[in-house]
Protein 1
Amino acid sequence: MTVLELTGEDLTIEMIKDFLGNSDAVVEITEEGYRKINASRKIVENIIREGKTIYGITTGFGLFCDVLISKEKAIDLQANLIRSHCCGVGRPFSEDAVLVMMILRLNTLVKGHSGVTADLADQLKMYINERIIPKVPEQGSLGASGDLAPLAHIAITLMGEGEVYYEGELRQTADVLEVLGITPLALREKEGLAMINGTQPMTAQGVLNYIEAEHLMEASLWIAALTHQALNGITDAYNEKIHASRGYTAQIYAAERMREYLEGSRLTTRQGEVRVQDAYSIRCIPQVHGASFQTLEYVKDKLETEMNAANDNPLIFSEDEVFSGGNFHGQPIAIAMDLLKIGAAEIANISERRIERLVNPALNGDLPAFLSPEEGFQSGAMILQYAAASLVSENKTLAHPASVDSIPSSANQEDHVSMGTIGARHARDIIDNMRNVLAIELLIALTAVELKGKEKLSPKTREKFEEYRLVADFIEKDRVFSMDIENLSLALSAVK
């Protein structure tokens, strides 16, 4: 059994990846984690007993922050908060995304700055370990004050309301809890606010985006190496000295990988043998793909910082230090997701240009036009390029930065918001499109190198050829290609 211990300090993307890859994985809270939870809870109870005015504990929320709430209504206040904030719309987040949201939220609570009870932490831990996954609509968050609506849809299920996915079925939460003998949680003072003031939905989707994007960007290099060989590309452009002279680590890495993938090929050429230079979509693979790899470095740093961040409000540090601030504001993740969108979109852009070179008879050397087995009678890969062009065009609209937009809310009390969850969702969509474009390039490249002579492939790309030829057949006649694209796309995905 895989055990993920949450400390609030050292959670990584790799840990989340391992957790998702093991169906029996569970989370645990360390003794120190419980100590910090209990210590911060004691401070909240002292605040209530002494009647201090603290936002969200003894006051209303947003514009109502100056409205004092009596002790008798303090608990009902939390339930009202959660129910009123459950206004998400649209299709639900994936079950994996919601599972990661819950892990990240629990990791934040373990830091001991949120003032929740150990009972709430245990209920959330139980949901994670039993794989009781709330249904969370993915639209309706401004990304500050945190992802309020999505997190409310998680919190309400802890109370026994709403809907959850359990054992592959969408069911009423109350029914699942009854079957499992779990008592619904009555949220206490501060706990409703502690559950929804945070950036976990945008961050969780961002983590899944990163895992998939990193995997696909690696795959894009060996796919490009297949295309390079189909077009008898020139290897001199990947010479180590060229890339060392510029100094970008990611560019140097991409060039090194291309050299490794092409080593031993009898389909590549040297400058001047067939042509002096290749087009940019071949010659500049290290520069373009490398720049996209650079976005991953930035995104990973911001995600792993946020995964271990205290992004509640107010934050509790001691009896005399309970501060209202803005750590729930999603701007750091919003900008990171917008950057990831650009990086992923550019991989799809350059891939589509290589697709065009593979099918265009004016550009593909001695390959058949559109790789058609009977030119004129059969269209071959002609419309595959159309599909790729459509996807990259769609990406250009999705790549518009969400983080530069803001609409004031709560009667201008919350007058600047991040739109980070929109950015994370659009990044996911761009990455999905990128994967399909790469699948199209792979489908065409597999046929193109077979026409050129698969026995001449480099050893490393020959291995990939044999693996993915089992997924999609040679284009020997016109057929319905959408299934080939879907199967290759699934085979390329990091999360099956």
Note: The longest strand covers residues 3-6.
Protein 2
Amino acid sequence: MTDSQTDSLPTFKLVVLAGGESAERTISLQSGESVARALTSRGHQVKTIDPSLIDLERYDWTNCDAVFIALHGTYGEDGTIQATLDRLGVPYSGCDASTSKLAFSKSASKERFIQCNVNTPSYVLIHESDNAQRIEQHARTMGYPLVVKPDAQGSSLGVTIVQTPEELPQALTRCFHYDSFGILESAIKGSEWTLSLVNDQVLPLIQIQTAREFFDYEAKYHEDSTEYLFDFDFPTNVIQAITKTGVNACEALGTTGIVRVDMILDRFQQPWVLEINTIPGFTNHSLVPKAAAKAGIDFGELCERALIHCLTKTADKPQN
């Protein structure tokens, strides 16, 4: 059974995991609500569970065919929930535990990108216990402007573009509020892009335009002025290069299911991979649903495609 045959799927008993205790809890609840509504509209029996309120180890999974993970941030995207579901023998959407853990760490994924010749900005891994002078020296060596980011966090939380040495201490404080590890990353000036894949199907590329300094949390979820473009004023070979770079990044990490690659195109028209999101948002502002709609995939079918592998395995099981 292929992705194009989702209309022929029987109905399933599904659980949507949303909420959790990460800094992205609010967005996760919104994603979960949208997903549950969409899957219900496709005829499935859907129950939403918040792992911060219900112990998944004690939950009765006998009446669950598969889980849609709509947990963003820590616990959802870092491989923890995937490892838990693996132990419980419950099929779930998205990448496995090891790939999720790899993608969620910016430093670990960058190392894999470098090994696989995928362009990514240079970086230095830092820790909150590091000597301030050591971090300042790294920043001077890297040069300004630079970007300070938590090593493991999503939705651009704790991210700051630092223009001068005087701005560095505040940026570090903000970064270490979200994670004990962080990275200093070379700031690439250029246009922002995102590429989504659904079970290896490449969705239409999106160029993001925001009036803010970069595509930060506010631009992602609250700014109605943020623009998402599908028609580009760039040569075809440049668009192909951006797409190829995004696909290569996913292959480097071995992702599956629905993923989103965030990139920057510099002034020399060279694409650079910033990160891969293994559980991208499913809100009204989210990028994957926009790209899917452009490709003619409605939201309900998109949600089913996220579960297609475990659903088809269940559908193909012989009935007793």
Note: The longest strand covers residues 190-198.
